[in-house]
Known about the structure:
By secondary structure, the chain is mostly beta strands. About 5% of the residues lie in helices and about 50% in strands. The longest helix is centred in the N-terminal third of the chain and has 4 residues, at about 1-5.
Amino acid sequence: xxxxxxxxxxxITEPEFSVKHVLADGNFVAVHTEFLNSxxxxxxxxxxxxxxxxxENKKIVEYWDITQQILPNMPNVNGAF
Length: 81
């Protein structure tokens, strides 16, 4: 995610990607992540996501995600996740 963001926007000067939670049940996995545009200035925005994956034979065969954009001055700083 960090490498992918480097060419997208000159504003993203010090990206921060973190995995918040990982849940696994058999071949289903859910991963809660946060991507901030700036590690030292989290109010500059980013993304919060939940990634849902299903595996077969050690390969991802299904992928879904739920994304929330982090905007400046959000009423709930913790967001939906």
